[in-house]
Each structure stands twice: as structure tokens, then as C-alpha cells.
Amino acid sequence: MWRRTYLLLLVIRVYFALSPSYLHPDENFQGPEIFAGEVFAYPSKRPWEFTADHPIRSVFPLWPIYEVPMSLMQWFYSETNRESPPPALVYYVLRGVMFLLSFVLEDWAVYELVPSPQHRRATVVLVASSYVTWTYQTHTFSNSLETLLVAWGLVLIRRILENKQRSSWFSYAVFSFIAVAGVFNRITFPAFLLVPGLQLLPYFKRKPSSLVAIIGFGAIFASFAIINDTLFYRSSASFLSSIRHPVITPLNNLLYNSDTSNLATHGLHPRYQHFTVNLTQLLGPAYIVMIFSVFRKPSIPTWLRNARATSALSATLLLSIFPHQEPRFLIPCVPLILSCIRIRRSRIFLAVWVVFNVAMGFLMGVYHQGGIVPAQLAMRNIISMNTAAQGIRTNPVTSVFWWKTYSPPHWLLGADNRSIPAIRTIDLMGIPGADLIQRLDESVPSCGTLSPVYLVAPTSATFLDQYIATGTPRTPDLQLYRLWSYRKHINLDDLDFGDDGVVPTLKRVVGRRGLGVWSVRRTCK
Predict the structure, then answer these.
(1) For 329-376, what is each residue's pLDDT tens digit?
(2) Residue 8: other Cβ atoms inside 10 A
(3) Theoretical Cys-Cys bridge with 189: which of 182, 236, 331, 354, CB 3.0 to 4.6 Å?
(4) 73, 246 in Cβ contact below 8 A?
(5) Which of 284-305 are b and which e, b meaning 16 or more Cβ less than 10 Å from the residue's Cβ?
(6) Based on C-alpha coordinates, what's the Rg of the chain?
């Protein structure tokens, strides 16, 4: 029974891996956006983390996840005498890579971390049935990679402790690599292994050579990572110059996040946000089970002796020190906590668990900003068809304004094509509607000139209704002509319960869900 259930959950994970939802801009701009411009010469926009005077993001852990698959695809296309692969193929290949990493490494690690054979199967199925596994773990997040590194860090700690007879140099090397890759991937990584790592102190006291080996391997991997980052950010620097003036991204990241004024630009949250709101959002009904499991008197010592539990809870406590707290920061906690709770065939829990994960899975894995990727992938065809329909023979620069959406990934536009206009992407984020119209009015040419201006916005934005062309004369000077729409798109940032009320807001955001692409033109008498 458990095999069939696991295979079904595997199919569900594949479905969500190939669904183009968009959970956070970082899943594109801190990974694929960087290397797509390097490998394929796609249009790309590096975020400030990679362009600051003291860059805070490392490319060392990103190289095997993104650049290697991209380079292999580019090599294959060059060998077949074809141009660069289409961005849609690259996008889904990277999603496939993340799915394989989740399927192989995460499930394997969870299986090894649970010591009891009778609980292993149930735990693997429980983790595989979480919407976090379906969505976040199949997206190109640094947090998803951190989940794998944390899990395997705990596996290596356990293997080292259990191997009491002889030293395992291979385990030392792998553990050192995981530690270095984890720190260079996210500065939050040490918070997950700090307390469980204390178990190694008696082992190091008994075998000092093991500590020397781990530090030695770690120094080698860290040196390689620093040189790799330095040469990436200072491409003109020589090898000796990179050694004398290195770029140490984890240190820059730590210094940046230690300043509260910097975190304020990303949003400040109460200190209890992680323990209350974020864990509840990630775990759902399992959060209640966890609370009852921890605070039952016989269970407290059991949880404190559990490396998985101490890793998750101590990391949540340490990360709560920083006032900027997002749910995705706690993604590594999800498989660790789920592997600690025991469900005694409760039909009520099973029903609530299924409903919660199915609802959150479709919300976050299908509908959440789900139209951005399809719109950007289709943008060149949309513009090409509209250009031909308007009879534009020249190739002016086409301006595409994005409003009330996440930042669109530039690399999804693919390689430039001389037969259609060059595309200039303008991200307006959530500026007021009046400012949007002013920006459009400044860009749309005068009456009688064909317009190379487009607007991408949620169909739930009722402000645009007064400008949508209906075939009859309208008062506004600017008119919007819809060219394309995608129904599976919900903009949760557009929830305005305070002004509109709960029911009207849900009717608008959910009932009018979707993302549209409009051609912006002037009304000519």
C-alpha cells in the first residue's frame, strides 16, 4: 500500500514541478537569471546582490545546479548546428533537475535519518505528501538546496558518530564539502547544524585527527569557493590578484544582514513570526501535532535528544533573532519536523492533512503568480503577431510594462531575433494606478503612430476597466486592447481587505483571476 501511495505522490510532485507557478523572485533572479546570460547570451538582469560593491551571493553552490545543465544543453545545440535552446526547454529542464534532487537526495536522507525501520516508510510518505515538497523543493530556490544540504549534513554527522572503529576520510571530505557549500549557499545554514554538531565534540576529543581532516578539507573547499567567486565578480583579475584581494561572499552577507537598517528595506517582522505564522503556514495540521508532541511531559526529553528536532527548533530560534522572517527560510525544518511526529492512523488528521496540502499545493504550485512565466515565454510571439497585424515594418524598441506582478525573469525572453522588435522590460511593481497611466502616457506615441507599448497586469485589477477598449468610443485617451490572457494566475499581493472588505476582495482576486497582456494605444478621432 505504501509503495502505491508513494508512487502516486511522486506523480503529483512531477505535476507541480512542471507547473509554472512563481513563488518568489529569488527563484529566478538568484540562479537561472545569472547563468542564462552567461551561457546562452539571453537577456538578463543581475539583482543587486550580485552587482553591489560587496556582493553577498556566491556562485559556487549554484554552478553545478544551474550552469552545468545549461552548458550541457548549449553544447548539445552547438553540436547539432542549431542556435541556443528555447528558454522554455531550459526552464523545464532546471525544474526537472530540482525534482530529481528532491526525489533522490531528500527522500534518501529522510529515510536514513529515521532510525526505526517501522517508521521509515510512513515518514517518507508523510514528507512526500507535503505541499512544501511539491512546490518549494521543485523550484530553483537557494532554500531548496539548503534543505538538501542540511539533511545530508545530519546524515554525515550520524555516519561519523556510528563509525567508531575506524576513521572515514570519505565521510570527513563529504561533510566538509556540505558545510562549505551550505555556508556559501545561505548564511543561515550553520543555524541548522550548530546544535546537532555539538555531538561531534566527544568524537573529536577521542579522535583529534578527524577534526584536523574536516578542517583541512573544509579549507580546501572554501579556498576554491572564494577563488571561484572572486574570478566571477572580477573577471579581469588574475589568479594572484584573486588571492590577495578575495571576494568572501558569506562574510559580506553576514555583515549586510547584521544591519537592521538593511533588513528594513526587505520588510521587518515580529520576532515570533517564525514560530507562529511561518511554521503554521508550512506545516498546517502537523504544526498542532508537533506542539502537542513537544509539550507532553514524557516527550520533551525525547525531542531534545533527537538531532532532527533539535536542528529544526534551534534553527528556528536562532533565525528568529533577525527581524526579517519569510516562510521559505524555514523550508529545511519541514522534513525534519515531519520525520519526528508520529501519527497513529488518525482519520481526522489524514483528512485535514490531505485537504490542507491539496489546497496549498494548487494555490502555491499552480495559481500563485502563475501567469508570469507563460506570459514571458509567449511575449515574443505576442509582439510578433501584433506587429504584423498593425503593419509595422520597422523594428522599433518595444516597451513592455509589468504592473502588480512579481518581477518578470528577463532570461525567459530568449535570444534576440532580428525579425521582431527588441524588447525592453519595465517592472513597475505595485505603483499607484495614476502613476501607471502617467508612465504609459509618456511612452505611447502620438495619435496616428502605431504603438510599440504593451502592458502586462492581473485581470483582477479593476482600475484598468475604464481603459479597456470595448469597440465603442471611450473618454480616456489611452485604450487597452487585450492580446493574450492566462487564467491560472492569482495575485495574493492584491488582497485589500481593509478597503474593499473580505468577500468583495476574494470575488475580485479569485473570481477575476488571470494575467493579461494588452496593447496600449491612443484613441484617435
Answers:
(1) 999 999 999 998 887 777 888 999 999 999 999 999 999 999 999 999
(2) 13
(3) 182
(4) no
(5) bbbbebbeebbeeeebeeebee
(6) 25
Distance, in Å, from the CA atom of 108 to the CA atom of 104, rounded to the nearest integer, reads 6
- How far apart are alpha carbons 272 and 304 in whole angstroms? 21
Query: In sequence order, what are the beta bridge partners of 399?
Result: 424, 453
End-to-end CA distance of the chain: 70
Residues whose CB falls within 8 Å of the CB of residue 339, separated by 6 or more in sequence, listed in order:
110, 113, 114, 123, 126, 127, 308
> Confidence class of residue 417 from pLDDT cuts 50, 70 and 90?
very low
Cell of 360: 496549498
Pairing assessment for the beta strands 423-427 and 398-402 based on DSSP bridges? parallel
Contact 227, 243 (CB under 8 A): yes
- CA–CA gap between residue 149 and residue 385 (Å, rounded): 46
Tell whether pTM > 0.85.
yes
Backbone angles phi, psi at 481, to 5 degrees: -115, 115
Span 192-220, pLDDT tens digits: 999 999 999 999 998 999 999 999 999 99
